[in-house]
Structures are given as structure tokens and as C-alpha cells.
Design goal:
Distance between the termini: 45 Å
Radius of gyration: 31 Å
Oligomer: single chain
Number of strands: 15
GO cellular component, one term: extracellular space
CATH architecture of the largest domain: Roll
Shape: globular
CATH topology of the largest domain: Alpha-1-antitrypsin, domain 1
CATH superfamily of the largest domain: Alpha-1-antitrypsin, domain 1
Largest sheet: 9 strands, mixed
Number of helices: 11
Organism: Hucho hucho
Protein name: Thyroxine-binding globulin
GO molecular function, one term: serine-type endopeptidase inhibitor activity
Helix content: 40-55%
Strand content: 15-25%
Family: Belongs to the serpin family.
Structural class: alpha+beta
Length: 517
Amino acid sequence: MLTSYCLSSFFLMLPEGLFLCHSCFISSLFGWIEVKGGLAGLCVWGCNHGNTESHGERLSSLISQMVAGIWKITKMRTALCLWIVMGVFCLGEVKGHKGHGGDRHQGQGLDHDRRHDNDRGHNHEHKQDHNHGHHHPEASDNGTKLVIQGNGGFAFSLYKQLVAQPDNQGKNVFFSPLSVSLALAALSVGARGQTHQQLFTGLGFNSSLLTQEQVDQALQSILTQLNQKTGVDLSIGSALFLHNTFKPHPEFLKDMKRFYRSEGFTVDFTNTAEAIDTINKYVGEKTRGKIDKLVKDLDPTTVMYLLSYIYFKGKWEIPFDSEDTKEDTFHVDDNTPVLVQMMSVKKRFSVYYDQEISTSILQLHYNESVSMMLALPEKGLASLEEVIGQNHITKWHRWMKARVYQVHVPKMSITTTYSLKDVLSGMGMPDIFSNGADFSGISEDLKVAVSEVAHQASLDVDEAGATAAAATGVVIMPLSFRHTPVLKFDRPFMVIVMDQETKSILFMGKIINPANK
């Protein structure tokens, strides 16, 4: 509907514009004739300036003729420019209204007034244009591609940082890179100077190629597409909890609401128990009860709590039959077997074997563009973690082939909780936690810094499908045409939940022991 309306607005103006250009072209033609005639007259006048004719009157007449011709030319150029500006203006206005109208904002304290007097924090000497509604579609498309690439790179960087943490050794790792990047990108709206630069670099955004405006618009587009899916239950957004005496810049609140689907609430952080309860109830509601204790304690000097959430529940396109689920052995390592409930089904699946890294990949589709990819390396998970990157996901999608397989996948229900302060500092974003943090785009009256970034995710996989909230080798044996190749996930593997439409990694992690909660 938006595209149709934009084009209609443009083309309704087009006939008038063409008529205007045509009529002005005729005017311009006569204008050039008059100018050239005036120039010729001046030459003649210059050669015959000794004649008895009044030189002053003749010179005045020739100049008047040239001025009239120039005016006709100028009028045509002005009319054409106005027509083009009106066309771009209408396209920009419609796109801007669409983004504004798509907000579903409840709560208090989010001002609709818009000011554009603050720099967005890039290392530019000039002030940037904050008129988000007016932009070239080509620039927007390119910005979205760069943001998607940045998000993909950030997902794998964050994964490698998490699995390297001493506390995570030998444990399941599961998180939502999109939820984390969404919160940090929202934070960058109010960051300035080096703080902003560190956030952009850490998120995988090149500030010489991407502006804050492009990031805002790209994430707005991604969030809109994800929240509009009907074949799966997918909800993603953010929220701001503000101390009742803290007044951030109105433009910061405006951008949070418009581009990051942020809901706003005022709380009294000095009453820590009540503030914790308010935030946890909100998160529990948004994640359908999967995560209800994100916040365990709060500093009473807190002035703002920014959170992002994502909830996903999808049914398998090819479901497992619960009658075929049996108790089986999962090998955590060579010396640690555990009993799990192993689901099994024989159907046509998308499978790929990556010879370069000796890894088998199974793609389990949901009812829409979302799918779960399970990667099982022959040489151990550590060998896969050393080399895997965004390019592997692209390659796997390209070379997936459908074939009948006997697939075995363990049922699992896991919950993970992470403090990301040290992780994000290690990814090049230490300033946001320091006294030198520059969040003057949030508030100039009160100097603020980030005290903690908490992340919690959960994953449930059963015969019907998977629910997630932010949350011995493979035996492939084509012995003969009468035998079905087997793909059995009975040892540590990697899991990636991805939306192919937006190229977004919603969740990712590794399963070391599906028996652990």
C-alpha cells in the first residue's frame, strides 16, 4: 500500500510537470532567440557607436531584450526544479508517515515534539540532517544492506566472545544477537563523539559508510517486517524505563519510539523492589512468561533502564511424531554420555555437507521465512567455532539440497543468563561503561553512563516446533538406494535461528548438553 501510494503521488504530479516543462521549453526557445538577438545588436552597436542615433536609448533597448530572454530561461529552470522537489518531497513525506504510523507506543514520557539541533555523534564537523522521513530510496536500500552485514558480523563476534568466557566453558550457550544489537543501536542514538564511534565499530557499522539515520531507518524496516509475520509467533521491540525526575532530550525519546518500537514508562528507581517488579512483569508479558526475572537487583541511583526483547514460537513445517521419540544417548564428550529424549523422523529435509570444514548442516523450516539451522562438525565443535562466519551461512543457504533423511534431534529446554559488560568491553566498547561516556544526546543536564548490560534467553525444542525468547560424527550413509541416509545430532552442535527475508540471525548458540536446563 505504501509503495502504491508513493508512486500515485509521484505520477499524479507527472503530467502537470511534463506540461510545465513543455510550455517552459517554448518560452526558453524564444528567450534564447532574444538573448542572441540582443548580443548581436550589441556587437552592431559597438561597431557603429559613432552614428547619430542616441547611443543611450539603443543600449537600453538591447539590454532590456536580453533581460527578457534570460527571465524566460530562468523561469523554465525554476519551474522544473520545483516539480522535482515536490516529487521527492511527496515520496519522503509518505515514507516518513508510514514509519510514524507504524509505532505502537504505550506508556508515558515520550514526547512527540521533534528538534534537530543536536549532532548524532559522528566525527563530522557539519551537522547531519535529521529529517528521517526524507531520503533517497537507493541510499536507504544500501544502508539496510550494510546494517544487515554489520548485524551478521556482530552476531558471530558476540558468539565467539561468549564461548571464550571462563564461566561458559562446557556449558550451553544461547542468545539473541538481534536483541543485543537492537539495544546497543538504540543506545547509540544518544551517544556522541568517541562513545558513539565505539558503539558503531563494535556493532560492525562503518561510520564512514553509514549514518545514524540510515541505521535507524534500516532497523525500523527490519523490526516492521519481523513483527508483521503471521505464520509464526514473533515479537520484537524495546522499552525505556525512566526515573520519574529524569527528563531526556525529547528528540531521543522520539527516535526511540519511532525507529525502535520503544515503549516508555516512568518509575521510581529509589524504590528498587517496585521498579524491579515493574520491569520484570513487562518482560514476562512480552516473552509470554518465558523470561520473568531479567532484573534481580538495581542501583537506586539508576535514572534509565533500556531493554530489548524478542519472542519466537514456530511450528515445524515437518513436525516430529511424539510416538517416535525415544530415550537415547547424547555424548557431551568422549567420557560423558547423558540420556536424552531423542526425536526422530524420516522426511525430505534441506541438508548440506560443507567439505571445507567437515560439517553437516540440517535446516528445519517453520511456517514462514524463519528456519533453524543445526551444524554438526565431524572434528569437534571447537574446530567449527574457529572458522565459522557470516559467509558460511550464506554458502549453506545457497547450496542446500532437499533429500529424504532419517533425522534425530534431541528435545531440549535451556535458559541462559549473561552479564555483557566485560564481553562488550572486549569487543571495543569500553567507554559506554566509563565516567568518560558521552551520552549528551540523551541528557546534557545529567552526565550518565551504562552500569550493566544483562541478557537472558531461553530455548525449547519439541516435536511440534521450537519456542525461543531472548533466548561421534555425523553418519551420512548412502549405502544403497534402499537405505536412507541418517543425520543424528547426538553430540555437541551449533544452532542458528534465522529469518531469511531480512537476513537476520534471531538466535544462535551451541548445545553441549541438552539434558541441562
